[in-house]
Amino acid sequence: MTGIEDRKIGMKLIQGILEKNKQELIITCEGPIDVFGYGETIARNFGKVGEKITENSGKYLVRSANIYQTTAITVPTNNLATGLLIIAKKGFENAKKHCFCQKIRRSISLPAVWKRYFFTSGKEVDRFTFY
Known about the structure:
The chain is of the alpha+beta class. Helix content is 37%, strand content 18%. It contains 7 helices and 5 strands; from the N terminus they run αβαααββαααββ. It has helices at residues 7-20, 41-44, 47-55, 62-65, 92-95, 101-106, 112-119; strands at residues 26-30, 71-76, 83-88, 123-125, 128-130. It has a 3-stranded antiparallel beta sheet with strand order 1-3-2. A two-stranded antiparallel sheet has the order 4-5. The N and C termini lie far apart (48 Å).
């Protein structure tokens, strides 16, 4: 899968897997996205600096899935800015194939600090409580 960060190569790979090989799903692990580089197309076109900024974006097939008009979802993992990208052909019927994502999601545990910060009903700061 070398070179799949390039949209043209990524779309050709997606076409080969979903159309020619008649597979129902593509699953990749992508990321960390936009942590070590900012993966935007416009910046990439501004010389060596733009290329350097975008080359470590952590985006691979995620760059091509939307353009190829697939139905895609990313399931977060326990690694920062990293997820399992699940791609199927466009449409509701194909989206139902993503239902097993819930089983995958249940197998991934978020760090305790994440749960405390985002899933508690209130935040305490000094003597004040916010709800």
